Amino acid sequence: MTVKKPVLTDGWEDEDLPEWTDEHFQRAAIYDGDRLVRPASGTFTKPGRPKSADPKQQVTLRLDSIVLEKFRAMGPRWQSRINAELRKALGL
């Protein structure tokens, strides 16, 4: 559930506020009243991750527990390694 935070105005002067550029406005969230029309991409100072040309899809997949244990034991990015092994098996 999204909770709206109060706008903090105490102690701020107009001179303290950063200047918004066209890029900031392009990344900003857009609301129509309380309805979110477009979420923000990135933050004010960081543009966020670039969109992938071939984004991955989330799926539910049942694997043998031993297979899952072995991949997880290899450390972080175990899901990417499973993806790489599937690609290799398919000749991609």
What does this structure look like?
The chain is of the alpha+beta class and 92 residues long. The chain has two domains: 18-47, no CATH class; 57-92, no CATH class. It is 30% helix and 8% strand. It contains three helices and two strands. It has helices at residues 22-27, 65-73, 78-90; strands at 30-32, 35-38. The protein has a two-stranded antiparallel sheet with strand order 1-2. The longest helix is centred in the C-terminal third of the chain and has 13 residues, at 78-90. It starts with 21 loop residues before the first helix and ends with a helix. The mean pLDDT is 86.
Which helices and strands appear, and what pairs or packs with what?
Layout: H1 22-27, E1 30-32, E2 35-38, H2 65-73, H3 78-90
Antiparallel strand pairs: 1-2
